[in-house]
Amino acid sequence: MPSPAMAATPVFRGLVAPGEHTLEAHLLYRGRANPYGIFATYIKGYCFKIHTQSRIVAKQGGIVRIDVIAYERGGVTTPFEERPAVRYEVQP
User: Fold this and answer.
1) Phi/psi at 41 (nearest 5 deg)?
2) Which of 2, 27, 53, 76 is geometrically suited to a Cys-Cys bond with 6, CB 3.0 to 4.6 A?
3) Which sign, positive or negative, has the C-alpha torsion 4, 7, 9, 10?
4) Domain that includes residue 44, residue range
5) How many folded domains does the chain comprise?
């Protein structure tokens, strides 16, 4: 079961006018102390602000689902500053 921080949060459900639209996402990542990690104090000081945009086209009478997914890119050798990422998944 995903943690509350990992759960989906609908932010808009409704009608939009047909045509091109810009979807913006503004996310804030904050490091949180972990009592079991050797980097607990180190990561606690991190704060990342991410602003992204994606253009979508709404068709007349169409239905589309857009998921904005925050994820961590890279691996153990990727610096913390480069890990926060966002992607858009469009399902017509």
Assistant:
1) -75, -40
2) 2
3) negative
4) 14-91
5) 1
